[in-house]
Amino acid sequence: MREGILFIVSGPSGGGKTSLVREALRRIRNLTFSVSVTTRKPRNGEVDGRDYTFVAEDAFRDMVEEGRFAEYASVHGNLYGTPLEELEGARRSGVDMILDIDVQGARQIKEKYGAGVFCFVLPSSFGILKGRLTERGSEKTGDLEKRLSEAKREMEEINNYDYIIINDSFDEAFDCLSAVIKSARCEYSRAAERIGEDYFA
Ligand code: 5GP
Questions:
Q1: How far is the CA of 80 from the centre of ligand 1 (A)?
Q2: Closest residue (by CA) to atom 17 of ligand 1?
Q3: What are 93-140's pLDDT values in tens digits?
Q4: Mean of the per-residue pLDDT values for the chain?
Q5: How far apart are CA 122 and CA 45, in angstroms?
Q6: Per the confidence metrics, is the pTM higher than 0.90?
C-alpha cells in the first residue's frame, strides 16, 4: 500500500482556503483533515476538535516539549501546530491528508518529510483580498492590518509551492484543487502498485 499523501494548503487569511479545503473534504473520498492545535480563541461557529483543537498557551508549550507536533509556528500572534501522531498515522495507513497551514509550517513539513504536494491559494489581487477580509468583519481593525501585512510576507514564499490556486471564483478554484489532488493520486509512483500482477503474467 502506498503512503498517504500530504496536501499542504497555504495562503493569506481571507484568500478562501478554509472553504476550499472543507469542500474538498466533503467531495473527495479518502481524504482527511489535519486538525491543528491552536492557542487562538474560537471564532463564531468554530467547533473544538473539528476546526481546531483549542488549548491554552501552557498546554501548547507542553505539547512542543513532548515533541507532539510535526510542525508549529506563531501566526498573527497565536500558536498553531500540526499533531504528529495523526499525520504519521494517516501516512502509514495510506490516507491522504490536507493540512491548512501557514508558510512557516509548510517549510517545516517540506524539510522534515521531503514530500508533500504544496498548494498556495490566493485571490488574483491584493485589493480583492483586502475586500474579503474587510467583509468577513470577524477581525478587529488592528487584526485586519496585521493579517494584511502578514499576507505580503507570505507572498515572499510563494515560490516554494508546487501549485498556485487563484481563488476569484470558488468553483474554478475548487476544480483546480480537486485536479491537483486527483492527479497526485494518479502519479506513476503512487498508482503503479494498483495494477494487477496478472497483466504481466
Ligand atoms: P486562522 O486563525 O485564520 O484560522 O489561521 C491563521 C493562519 O494559521 C492560517 O494561515 C492557517 O493556515 C494557519 N494555520 C492553521 N493551523 C496551522 C498549523 O497547524 N500550523 C501552522 N504553521 N499554521 C497553521
A1: 6
A2: 101
A3: 999 999 999 999 999 999 999 999 999 999 999 999 999 988 876 656
A4: 95
A5: 23
A6: yes
Residues 6+ apart with CB under 8 A from 192: none
Q: Is the Cβ–Cβ distance between 90 and 1 less than 8 Å? A: no
| CA 100–ligand 1 middle distance (angstroms) | 6
Q: What is the SS3 assignment for 164?
A: strand
The Cα-based distances of 51 to 18, 45, 138 in angstroms read: 10, 9, 16
From residue 152, alpha-carbon distances to 38, 114, 175, 177 in Å are 23, 26, 26, 23
Q: What are the beta bridge partners of residue 96?
A: 31
What H or E segment, with its residue span, contains residue 73?
strand 69-75
The answer, yes or no, to whether any atom of ligand 1 lies below 6 A from the CB of 82, is yes
DSSP letters for 80-148: EEEEHHHHHHHHHTT-EEEEE--HHHHHHHHHHHS--EEEEEE-SSHHHHHHHHHHH--S-HHHHHHHH
Domains and CATH numbers, the chain: 6-191 (3.40.50.300)
